[in-house]
Amino acid sequence: MLGGSAFDVLHIPFGTPPASRCHLPSSTTSPRYAKEKLQGRPSSVGEFNHREQFQIIKDLQSNVSGSVHLAKATGGVDVVVLKRRKVPELGKAKDMLNEYEVMKKLNHPNIIRCHGYFWDFPSQSLYIVLEYANRGDLHSELQSRRRLGKHFGDEEVWDILAQVLLGLRHIHDRGIVHRDIKSMNLFLTDEGDGNCS
Q1: CA 43 to chain centre
Q2: Which CATH number do you get for residue 174?
């Protein structure tokens, strides 16, 4: 899975302190605000429709525009990544759902799967529910192997490269450009696949 603010999508199966809370003006807490941000789309898509359906296991990242959490669906065994957005990505459209709209077009073993989204009315935030890559990102794996002196072998490097290229070809075949390909946006799972996000 590839990560980053541009759009998270590539996945390679193998394997910040929270920001200050933003206080939203009262005009942002109305149902009308949600309707404007969702631009006429439903308040949820997929099997999840509210924050209480998850138990947060760990905070992974946080900044002024949102946060990323490792979470477990209550009553289930699925561990997922909840990506919370308080403000839209940069771009002409200022569309909070742009990332979801792009990811729903993608279905490939080397691309992180998007399970849907939901609007959380109490926090006035959009949550995107993503597949969890249990081995973390390629950057962390490279750093860990460097410290241990256990570098990737040639065969592993070619395998990872092939998986990344397959994911990128799938993305490009759909007219999508990633804009932020780097080792921190390539995720690993135990299944041996590399995923872009």
Answers
A1: 19
A2: 1.10.510.10
As a whole number of angstroms, the distance between CA 127 and CA 84 comes to 4
CA dist., res. 119 & res. 116, Å (int): 11
Print the domain residue range for 150.
10-196
Q: Does residue 97 lie within any of the structural domains?
A: yes
Instruction: Report which of 57, 53, 66 is spatially closest to residue 132, judged by C-alpha positions.
Output: 57
Active-site residue numbers? Answer: 180
Residue with tokens 């007219």: 175
For 28, residues 6+ apart whose C-beta sits below 8 A from its C-beta are 124
Residue type present at position 125 = S
Backbone phi, then psi, for 195, in 5-degree steps?
-125, 145
Q: How many domains does the chain have?
A: 1
pTM value is 0.77
More confident residue, 147 or 9: 147
Answer whether residue 4 is part of any domain.
no
Residue 170 belongs to some domain of the structure: yes
Q: What is the mean pLDDT of residues 98-113?
A: 92
- Of 3-12, 59-68, 99-108, 155-164, least confident by mean pLDDT is 3-12
Overall average pLDDT of the 44-59 stretch: 92
